[in-house]
Amino acid sequence: MARIVQKFGGTSVADVDRIRKVAGRVKREVDAGHELAVVVSAMAGTTNQLVDWTRQTSTLHDAREYDAVVASGEQVTAGLLALALQELGVNARSWLGWQVPIRTDGIHGKARIREIPTDEIVRRMREGQVAVVAGFQGLGPDNRITTLGRGGSDTSAVALAAALRAERCDIFTDVEGVYTTDPRIVAKARKLDKITYEEMLELASQGAKVLQTRSVEMAMNHRVRVQVLSSFNDAPGTLVVDEDEIVEQQVVSGIAYSRDEAKITLLKVADRPGVAAAIFGPLADHAINVDMIVQNISEDGRFTDLTFTVGKADLDRAVKVLEEKRASLGFAALKPDPDVVKISVIGVGMRSHAGVAQQMFKTLAEKNINIQVISTSEIKVSVLLAEEYTELALRALHTAYGLDAS
Ligand code: ASP
Ligand code: MG
Question: How much distance in Å is there from the Cα of 210 to the middle of ligand 2?
Fold first, then answer.
């Protein structure tokens, strides 16, 4: 007998019929004698609709009311799944975030989970009751509903699994697991049997949409065994595990891409101490995150060009902030470019193997693709390219690193 947390994403609970199928899957585990807590997302599309309604109604953006609205999608699916389980003769009840309570900090719209008291849920699980928990939501210190950021029910599930000391946290989704890269773009992408926490963290934060980044952080910190698998078939999924559980480590495990960044180039910036702080300070003050940065060497020691990336959604604001400072910063021109893609190759094997970056540069050069910005970390090399090369670059790199399915 094991204690298992299962999480079902929006496409898995998209309508009543699918919710019935999910109930059947949960019942199988219950019948096998396991204790179950199930976390659900809202029906596919629902959260987008709710977000849209808040925007249509108000431009003021009171994040507390935003949370009150967008958390409602998970209330519906939690109740429906409990009903569907009861229909199958399984003892089940729904739990909303405030009922558990899943205590969070007060950052409405992207709250972090602080603690989850589990005494009552555990007591009931021991009596054979399935806990169906609404994902994505919690209770803030102001006693109001919070939400955990888009995709947050992954984090709800992992946090609950950690709090319950569950043996496993199964994340059911509409793909069969974690792939070497996006199979919709690269037909030869392979499903990975296992991936390390660190690699998964990089893949998620560099654009792979399969798990919310924060859920991977949480899994890594609490050593939760996460399994990503499809709710539509019984194929084995991908296990996210410690590095020492992976026997034969590839140098590169996966390739992620993100079209969510935009590039800004400042031409002829005065080359003197304090200039970078003067540029990036105001952006930080406006909560605009900067990701990749390159500064050119100045030829005459007086001026330099500076290129960096921000989130595409922040581009217009970033341009405005910088243009307002133009006089004091003294740059000659500002060039925004939203048509870029960031491609990242990721693998813990990079720590012990040289030449990974070089392989990337060579492969892109052979395809005549110009690299605009480069950044690296211990287990990752990222390049910024013109967006039109996304497919070509992904396919060429996938082959070059020996990741193609045979
Ligand atoms: N329903 C929320 C969203 O769409 C949370 C989730 O699905 O994980 O972002
Ligand atoms: Mg999701």
Answer: 6
**What's the pLDDT score for residue 400?**
97
pTM: 0.92
CA 205 to chain centroid, in Å, comes to: 6
Q: Is 135 in the pocket of ligand 1 (CB under 6 A)?
A: yes
The minimum-distance atom of ligand 1 relative to the CA of 10 is 7
CA-nearest of 381, 375, 377 to 397 is 381
**Å from CA of 254 to ligand 1 middle:** 24
**Ligand 1 binding pocket includes 140 (Cβ within 6 Å):** no
Express each pLDDT in 256-313 by its tens digit: 999 999 999 999 998 888 888 999 999 999 999 999 999 887 777 788 899 999 999 9
Which residue type is seen at 116?
Answer: I
Hey, what domains does the chain have and what are their CATH numbers? Answer: 3-174 (3.40.1160.10), 266-336 (3.30.70.260)
The tens digit of pLDDT for each residue in 29-58 reads: 999 999 999 999 999 999 999 999 999 999
* Ligand positioned closest to the Cα atom of 43: 1
H/E segment holding residue 391: helix 390-400
Whole-angstrom distance, CA of residue 328 vs CA of residue 119: 58
Total number of residues shown for the chain: 406
**Which amino acid does the sequence have at 204?**
A
Encoding tokens for residue 257?
């891409």
Exposure class string for 266-287: b at 16+ Cβ within 10 A, else e: beebebeeebeeebeebbeeee
Q: Residue 73: CB within 6 Å of ligand 1?
A: yes
Contact (Cβ atoms closer than 8 angstroms) between residue 264 and residue 319: yes
Q: Is 42 in the pocket of ligand 1 (CB under 6 A)?
A: yes
Can you tell me which residue has the tokens 């996938």?
398
Contact 110, 140 (CB under 8 A): no
Distance in Å, CA 133 to ligand 1 centroid: 13
- Smallest CA-to-CA distance from 256 within 392, 396, 380 is with 380
Q: Note the pLDDT tens digit of each residue in 156-177.
A: 999 999 999 999 999 999 999 9
Strand pairing category for 238-241 and 194-196: parallel
Ligand 1 centroid – CA 70 distance (Å): 9
